[in-house]
Write a sequence for this structure.
C-alpha cells in the first residue's frame, strides 16, 4: 500500500504538471471551444483511458521498449503524427460544425471524439516515457504489488487531470456558447480545431525522446 506521504508528494507533482499547458490541454480546450462541453469531456475521457493504458504498459515493462528499441519509438511517433494530420484533413474538409446537432448525430459524434482522444493519447510515445520516468520514483516494491501501485498513481493523476481540465472545459465551453449565438454555421471553429491537430502533428513528428 502506498503511504499517504508518497501520495501527497505525487499529487503535488501531478498538480504542477497538469496545470502546465500542454498538448492534451490544448486539444481539450479547442474541442470545448469549437464543439462544446460534451465534446471536451469526451476527449478528456479518451485521454484519461489512454493514461491507464500507458500505466499498464509501464507496469508490464512494455514502455521500456521505446528506450531499448529507438525504431519502435519512431514508428509510434510518426503513426501518431499521421493520425493527427488525418484528423486535421477530415476537420478541414467537413461542412461547418453545427452548434446544436440532432440527438443521434450528437451521440455518434461524442463516441467518435472519445475514440480520437484515446488514439491520440495512445499514439503519443512521449506519454509512455513520461509515465515511465515519473511513476517509478513513487513506487516501492516493499509497499506491495508494483502493478497495483502504478494503477493507483495513474488514478491519482487522472483524478487531478479531471479536475484541472474540467475547469478548462467549462471555461472554454462558455466561449462556445457565445460563439454559437452569433455565428451558427461559421467555418472558423473547424479551422481552429484543424489547425490544432496540424500543430500537434508537427510537434509530435519533430519531438525527440528527451
Amino acid at each position: 500500500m502506498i503511504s499517504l506521504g508518497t501520495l501527497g508528494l505525487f499529487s503535488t507533482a501531478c498538480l504542477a504538471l497538469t496545470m502546465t499547458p500542454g498538448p492534451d490541454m490544448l486539444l481539450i480546450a479547442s474541442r470545448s471551444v469549437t464543439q462544446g462541453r460534451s465534446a471536451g469531456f469526451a476527449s478528456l475521457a479518451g485521454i484519461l483511458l489512454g493514461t491507464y493504458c500507458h500505466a499498464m504498459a509501464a507496469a508490464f515493462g512494455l514502455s521500456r521498449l521505446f528506450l531499448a528499441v529507438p525504431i519502435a519509438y519512431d514508428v509510434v511517433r510518426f503513426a501518431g503524427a499521421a493520425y493527427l494530420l488525418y484528423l486535421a484533413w477530415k476537420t478541414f474538409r467537413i461542412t461547418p460544425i453545427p452548434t446544436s446537432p440532432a440527438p443521434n448525430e450528437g451521440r455518434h459524434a461524442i463516441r467518435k471524439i472519445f475514440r480520437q482522444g484515446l488514439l491520440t493519447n495512445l499514439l503519443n510515445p512521449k506519454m509512455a516515457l513520461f509515465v515511465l520516468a515519473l511513476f517509478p520514483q513513487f513506487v516501492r516494491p516493499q509497499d506491495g504489488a508494483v502493478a497495483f501501485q502504478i494503477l493507483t498513481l495513474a488514478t491519482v493523476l487522472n483524478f487531478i487531470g479531471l479536475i484541472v481540465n474540467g475547469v478548462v472545459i467549462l471555461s472554454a465551453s462558455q466561449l462556445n456558447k457565445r460563439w454559437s449565438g452569433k455565428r451558427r454555421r461559421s467555418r472558423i471553429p473547424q479551422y481552429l480545431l484543424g489547425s490544432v491537430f496540424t500543430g500537434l502533428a508537427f510537434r509530435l513528428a519533430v519531438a525527440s525522446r528527451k
User: Anything to note?
Assistant: The chain has a mean pLDDT of 83.
